[in-house]
Write a structure and sequence with these properties.
The protein is of the alpha/beta class and 331 residues long. 33% of the residues lie in helices and 21% in strands. A five-stranded mixed β-sheet has the order 2-1-3-10-4, sandwiched between helices.
Length: 331
Protein backbone atom coordinates (compact mmCIF):
# COMPACT_ATOMS: atom_id res chain seq x y z
CA UNK A 1 0.00 0.00 0.00
CA UNK A 2 1.39 3.41 -0.92
CA UNK A 3 1.72 5.96 1.86
CA UNK A 4 -0.82 8.74 2.00
CA UNK A 5 0.28 11.89 0.21
CA UNK A 6 1.45 14.84 2.30
CA UNK A 7 -0.65 17.96 1.60
CA UNK A 8 1.39 21.12 1.03
CA UNK A 9 -0.53 24.39 1.38
CA UNK A 10 0.56 27.11 -1.05
CA UNK A 11 -0.59 30.41 -2.48
CA UNK A 12 -1.81 30.21 -6.09
CA UNK A 13 0.57 32.70 -7.71
CA UNK A 14 2.99 31.45 -10.35
CA UNK A 15 5.93 32.20 -8.03
CA UNK A 16 4.34 30.51 -4.99
CA UNK A 17 3.48 27.43 -7.06
CA UNK A 18 7.05 27.28 -8.45
CA UNK A 19 8.73 27.51 -5.05
CA UNK A 20 6.23 25.11 -3.44
CA UNK A 21 6.82 22.64 -6.28
CA UNK A 22 10.55 22.77 -5.59
CA UNK A 23 9.95 22.17 -1.87
CA UNK A 24 7.51 19.34 -2.67
CA UNK A 25 10.25 17.53 -4.62
CA UNK A 26 12.73 17.98 -1.75
CA UNK A 27 10.19 16.73 0.83
CA UNK A 28 9.43 13.71 -1.37
CA UNK A 29 13.18 12.97 -1.48
CA UNK A 30 13.61 13.05 2.32
CA UNK A 31 10.33 11.33 3.29
CA UNK A 32 9.72 9.00 0.35
CA UNK A 33 6.07 10.09 0.45
CA UNK A 34 4.15 11.69 -2.41
CA UNK A 35 3.36 15.39 -1.92
CA UNK A 36 0.32 17.13 -3.36
CA UNK A 37 -0.10 20.90 -3.63
CA UNK A 38 -3.24 22.41 -2.08
CA UNK A 39 -3.88 25.89 -3.51
CA UNK A 40 -5.14 28.49 -1.04
CA UNK A 41 -6.15 32.08 -1.80
CA UNK A 42 -4.96 34.67 0.74
CA UNK A 43 -6.25 38.16 1.46
CA UNK A 44 -3.07 39.64 -0.01
CA UNK A 45 -3.81 37.85 -3.31
CA UNK A 46 -7.34 39.24 -3.69
CA UNK A 47 -6.95 42.77 -2.28
CA UNK A 48 -6.08 45.45 -4.84
CA UNK A 49 -4.89 47.91 -2.19
CA UNK A 50 -1.21 48.76 -1.80
CA UNK A 51 0.54 46.62 0.80
CA UNK A 52 1.43 49.66 2.89
CA UNK A 53 -2.35 50.36 3.18
CA UNK A 54 -3.47 46.84 4.11
CA UNK A 55 -0.75 46.57 6.72
CA UNK A 56 1.48 44.02 5.04
CA UNK A 57 1.82 41.86 8.12
CA UNK A 58 0.39 38.43 7.57
CA UNK A 59 -1.81 39.22 4.57
CA UNK A 60 -0.21 36.42 2.49
CA UNK A 61 0.11 34.03 5.43
CA UNK A 62 -3.05 33.94 7.56
CA UNK A 63 -5.17 31.78 5.25
CA UNK A 64 -2.35 29.21 4.94
CA UNK A 65 -1.90 29.12 8.71
CA UNK A 66 -5.65 28.71 9.24
CA UNK A 67 -5.64 25.72 6.88
CA UNK A 68 -2.74 24.20 8.86
CA UNK A 69 -4.54 24.66 12.17
CA UNK A 70 -7.74 23.13 10.76
CA UNK A 71 -5.76 20.12 9.54
CA UNK A 72 -6.64 20.75 5.87
CA UNK A 73 -2.93 20.70 4.93
CA UNK A 74 0.06 19.01 6.59
CA UNK A 75 2.58 21.77 5.99
CA UNK A 76 2.80 25.13 4.22
CA UNK A 77 5.48 27.01 2.29
CA UNK A 78 5.81 30.78 2.68
CA UNK A 79 8.19 33.43 1.39
CA UNK A 80 9.90 34.06 4.70
CA UNK A 81 9.78 37.83 4.30
CA UNK A 82 5.93 37.63 4.39
CA UNK A 83 5.85 35.99 7.84
CA UNK A 84 4.91 38.14 10.85
CA UNK A 85 7.79 38.22 13.35
CA UNK A 86 5.78 36.60 16.17
CA UNK A 87 5.42 32.83 15.76
CA UNK A 88 2.11 31.24 16.91
CA UNK A 89 2.66 28.55 19.56
CA UNK A 90 0.58 25.97 17.67
CA UNK A 91 2.85 26.20 14.61
CA UNK A 92 6.54 25.41 14.11
CA UNK A 93 9.01 26.71 11.55
CA UNK A 94 10.23 23.21 10.72
CA UNK A 95 12.76 24.22 8.06
CA UNK A 96 14.41 27.23 6.48
CA UNK A 97 16.15 25.83 3.37
CA UNK A 98 19.30 27.32 1.80
CA UNK A 99 18.58 30.89 0.78
CA UNK A 100 18.37 32.06 -2.82
CA UNK A 101 20.11 35.28 -3.94
CA UNK A 102 18.72 37.94 -1.53
CA UNK A 103 19.39 40.92 -3.82
CA UNK A 104 16.89 43.21 -5.50
CA UNK A 105 17.13 43.61 -9.26
CA UNK A 106 16.05 46.08 -11.93
CA UNK A 107 14.27 45.22 -15.14
CA UNK A 108 14.53 48.34 -17.27
CA UNK A 109 13.70 49.34 -20.82
CA UNK A 110 16.47 49.14 -23.40
CA UNK A 111 18.48 46.83 -21.07
CA UNK A 112 19.52 49.86 -18.99
CA UNK A 113 21.32 49.65 -15.66
CA UNK A 114 19.94 51.64 -12.70
CA UNK A 115 22.61 54.35 -12.92
CA UNK A 116 22.08 54.73 -16.70
CA UNK A 117 18.36 55.50 -16.48
CA UNK A 118 17.41 58.86 -18.05
CA UNK A 119 16.60 61.93 -15.95
CA UNK A 120 13.09 61.72 -14.50
CA UNK A 121 12.96 57.93 -14.98
CA UNK A 122 9.87 56.32 -13.46
CA UNK A 123 10.71 53.24 -11.39
CA UNK A 124 7.88 51.00 -10.19
CA UNK A 125 7.86 49.23 -6.82
CA UNK A 126 5.25 48.43 -4.18
CA UNK A 127 7.84 48.49 -1.39
CA UNK A 128 8.44 51.51 0.87
CA UNK A 129 11.83 49.93 1.73
CA UNK A 130 12.93 49.96 -1.92
CA UNK A 131 11.57 53.47 -2.46
CA UNK A 132 13.45 54.82 0.56
CA UNK A 133 16.80 53.36 -0.47
CA UNK A 134 16.52 54.06 -4.21
CA UNK A 135 15.57 57.67 -3.50
CA UNK A 136 18.40 58.04 -0.96
CA UNK A 137 20.92 56.59 -3.44
CA UNK A 138 19.63 58.86 -6.23
CA UNK A 139 19.87 61.89 -3.94
CA UNK A 140 23.46 61.03 -2.95
CA UNK A 141 24.55 60.45 -6.56
CA UNK A 142 22.67 63.32 -8.27
CA UNK A 143 20.32 60.97 -10.15
CA UNK A 144 16.83 62.19 -11.00
CA UNK A 145 14.25 59.41 -10.52
CA UNK A 146 10.61 59.09 -9.52
CA UNK A 147 9.44 55.99 -7.61
CA UNK A 148 5.92 54.90 -8.57
CA UNK A 149 3.84 52.58 -6.32
CA UNK A 150 2.66 49.45 -8.16
CA UNK A 151 1.17 46.06 -7.30
CA UNK A 152 0.62 42.82 -9.17
CA UNK A 153 2.45 39.66 -10.06
CA UNK A 154 5.76 39.44 -11.93
CA UNK A 155 4.08 39.47 -15.38
CA UNK A 156 2.03 42.55 -14.51
CA UNK A 157 5.05 44.43 -13.19
CA UNK A 158 7.34 43.60 -16.09
CA UNK A 159 4.42 44.49 -18.40
CA UNK A 160 4.56 48.12 -17.18
CA UNK A 161 8.09 48.35 -18.63
CA UNK A 162 7.27 46.47 -21.85
CA UNK A 163 4.26 48.76 -22.43
CA UNK A 164 6.32 51.89 -21.85
CA UNK A 165 4.34 53.01 -18.77
CA UNK A 166 7.45 52.78 -16.60
CA UNK A 167 11.17 52.98 -17.32
CA UNK A 168 12.00 50.21 -14.83
CA UNK A 169 10.62 48.00 -12.09
CA UNK A 170 12.35 46.55 -9.02
CA UNK A 171 11.87 42.87 -8.19
CA UNK A 172 13.55 40.23 -6.03
CA UNK A 173 16.24 38.12 -7.70
CA UNK A 174 15.09 35.03 -5.79
CA UNK A 175 11.59 35.04 -7.25
CA UNK A 176 12.85 35.49 -10.82
CA UNK A 177 15.36 32.67 -10.29
CA UNK A 178 12.61 30.37 -9.05
CA UNK A 179 10.35 30.99 -12.04
CA UNK A 180 13.22 30.81 -14.54
CA UNK A 181 13.14 34.48 -15.62
CA UNK A 182 16.43 35.79 -14.23
CA UNK A 183 17.63 36.40 -17.84
CA UNK A 184 15.26 39.40 -18.05
CA UNK A 185 17.16 41.29 -15.32
CA UNK A 186 19.05 44.32 -16.64
CA UNK A 187 20.83 45.19 -13.36
CA UNK A 188 21.53 43.49 -10.02
CA UNK A 189 21.38 46.05 -7.21
CA UNK A 190 24.30 45.63 -4.82
CA UNK A 191 23.25 45.20 -1.19
CA UNK A 192 25.40 48.28 -0.56
CA UNK A 193 22.87 50.22 -2.65
CA UNK A 194 19.64 48.54 -1.51
CA UNK A 195 19.50 46.25 1.51
CA UNK A 196 16.88 43.54 0.97
CA UNK A 197 13.81 42.91 3.11
CA UNK A 198 14.49 40.85 6.25
CA UNK A 199 14.33 37.21 5.14
CA UNK A 200 14.28 38.02 1.41
CA UNK A 201 15.24 35.05 -0.77
CA UNK A 202 14.51 32.53 2.00
CA UNK A 203 11.55 30.16 2.28
CA UNK A 204 9.79 29.04 5.46
CA UNK A 205 8.35 25.54 5.79
CA UNK A 206 5.77 25.51 8.57
CA UNK A 207 3.68 22.78 10.16
CA UNK A 208 1.57 22.11 13.25
CA UNK A 209 3.53 21.82 16.50
CA UNK A 210 1.77 18.51 17.34
CA UNK A 211 3.15 16.81 14.20
CA UNK A 212 6.51 15.73 15.70
CA UNK A 213 7.33 13.12 13.03
CA UNK A 214 6.79 15.56 10.19
CA UNK A 215 8.77 18.28 11.99
CA UNK A 216 11.70 15.86 12.27
CA UNK A 217 11.46 14.85 8.59
CA UNK A 218 11.19 18.44 7.33
CA UNK A 219 14.16 19.38 9.54
CA UNK A 220 16.36 17.56 7.00
CA UNK A 221 15.83 20.55 4.67
CA UNK A 222 16.91 23.15 7.23
CA UNK A 223 20.06 25.18 6.58
CA UNK A 224 21.56 26.40 9.90
CA UNK A 225 23.40 29.39 8.35
CA UNK A 226 20.27 30.63 6.57
CA UNK A 227 18.17 30.13 9.70
CA UNK A 228 20.66 32.06 11.87
CA UNK A 229 20.82 34.90 9.32
CA UNK A 230 17.06 35.32 8.88
CA UNK A 231 16.49 34.97 12.64
CA UNK A 232 18.85 37.92 13.23
CA UNK A 233 17.20 39.97 10.46
CA UNK A 234 13.68 39.31 11.73
CA UNK A 235 14.75 40.01 15.31
CA UNK A 236 15.91 43.46 14.14
CA UNK A 237 12.54 44.02 12.44
CA UNK A 238 10.61 42.89 15.54
CA UNK A 239 12.68 45.07 17.88
CA UNK A 240 11.99 48.09 15.65
CA UNK A 241 8.31 47.12 16.06
CA UNK A 242 7.93 47.36 12.31
CA UNK A 243 5.64 45.28 10.11
CA UNK A 244 6.81 43.63 6.91
CA UNK A 245 5.58 46.59 4.83
CA UNK A 246 7.72 49.09 6.79
CA UNK A 247 10.72 50.72 5.05
CA UNK A 248 13.22 48.46 6.85
CA UNK A 249 16.05 46.63 5.08
CA UNK A 250 18.24 44.04 6.79
CA UNK A 251 20.81 41.47 5.75
CA UNK A 252 22.90 39.10 7.81
CA UNK A 253 25.75 37.67 5.79
CA UNK A 254 29.12 36.05 6.20
CA UNK A 255 31.54 38.78 5.02
CA UNK A 256 34.36 36.59 3.63
CA UNK A 257 31.83 34.67 1.54
CA UNK A 258 29.50 37.36 0.31
CA UNK A 259 31.54 38.81 -2.55
CA UNK A 260 32.75 35.45 -3.94
CA UNK A 261 29.22 34.02 -3.69
CA UNK A 262 27.78 37.02 -5.54
CA UNK A 263 30.42 36.45 -8.23
CA UNK A 264 29.42 32.78 -8.37
CA UNK A 265 32.77 31.45 -7.08
CA UNK A 266 32.19 27.68 -6.75
CA UNK A 267 34.69 27.30 -3.90
CA UNK A 268 33.40 30.19 -1.78
CA UNK A 269 31.39 28.04 0.60
CA UNK A 270 34.37 25.83 1.40
CA UNK A 271 35.93 28.56 3.55
CA UNK A 272 35.50 28.34 7.31
CA UNK A 273 33.57 31.36 8.48
CA UNK A 274 33.53 32.55 12.06
CA UNK A 275 31.76 35.91 11.82
CA UNK A 276 28.33 37.10 10.79
CA UNK A 277 27.68 40.71 9.82
CA UNK A 278 24.20 42.19 10.26
CA UNK A 279 23.28 45.40 8.44
CA UNK A 280 20.08 47.33 8.96
CA UNK A 281 18.53 50.41 7.37
CA UNK A 282 15.36 52.40 7.88
CA UNK A 283 14.41 55.57 6.07
CA UNK A 284 11.66 57.85 4.91
CA UNK A 285 10.29 56.81 1.52
CA UNK A 286 11.52 60.02 -0.13
CA UNK A 287 15.08 59.07 0.90
CA UNK A 288 15.77 62.31 2.75
CA UNK A 289 16.41 60.73 6.15
CA UNK A 290 18.09 57.36 6.76
CA UNK A 291 19.53 55.45 9.68
CA UNK A 292 21.90 52.73 8.48
CA UNK A 293 24.11 50.71 10.84
CA UNK A 294 25.90 47.39 10.96
CA UNK A 295 27.38 45.07 13.55
CA UNK A 296 29.59 42.00 13.35
CA UNK A 297 29.63 39.11 15.81
CA UNK A 298 30.54 35.46 15.94
CA UNK A 299 28.22 33.23 13.87
CA UNK A 300 25.24 32.52 16.17
CA UNK A 301 25.20 28.92 17.45
CA UNK A 302 21.76 29.21 19.07
CA UNK A 303 18.47 30.94 18.29
CA UNK A 304 18.95 33.23 21.30
CA UNK A 305 22.34 34.40 20.01
CA UNK A 306 20.79 35.22 16.61
CA UNK A 307 17.90 37.05 18.28
CA UNK A 308 20.34 39.07 20.40
CA UNK A 309 22.34 40.14 17.32
CA UNK A 310 19.18 41.65 15.79
CA UNK A 311 17.91 43.19 19.01
CA UNK A 312 21.23 44.88 19.79
CA UNK A 313 21.48 46.49 16.35
CA UNK A 314 17.84 47.65 16.56
CA UNK A 315 18.60 49.30 19.91
CA UNK A 316 21.44 51.26 18.31
CA UNK A 317 19.23 52.24 15.36
CA UNK A 318 16.42 53.41 17.67
CA UNK A 319 18.97 55.49 19.61
CA UNK A 320 19.78 57.24 16.31
CA UNK A 321 16.13 58.07 15.62
CA UNK A 322 14.95 55.09 13.54
CA UNK A 323 11.48 55.06 15.12
CA UNK A 324 10.62 58.46 13.74
CA UNK A 325 11.37 57.38 10.15
CA UNK A 326 8.86 54.53 9.90
CA UNK A 327 5.61 56.46 9.81
CA UNK A 328 2.86 54.36 11.36
CA UNK A 329 4.54 51.73 13.54
CA UNK A 330 2.90 48.33 13.21
CA UNK A 331 2.07 46.61 16.50
Amino acid sequence: MTEKALRLGTRRSKLAMAQSGQVAEAVHRVTGRPVELVEITTYGDTSREHLAQIGGTGVFVTALRDALLRGEVDFAVHSLKDLPTTQPEELVLAAVPVREDPRDVIIARDSLKFTDLPRGARIGTGSPRRMAQLNAYARAHALDIATVPIRGNVDTRIGYVRDGELDAVVLAAAGLNRIGRIDEVTDFLSVDTVLPAPGQGALAIECAAVNADLIAALGELDDPFTRAAVTAERSLLAALEAGCSAPVGALADLPPLSAPLERGDPHADEQIVKEMRLRGVVGTTDGTRMVQLSTTGSVPQTENQALALGRDLATEMLAQGAAGLMGERAH
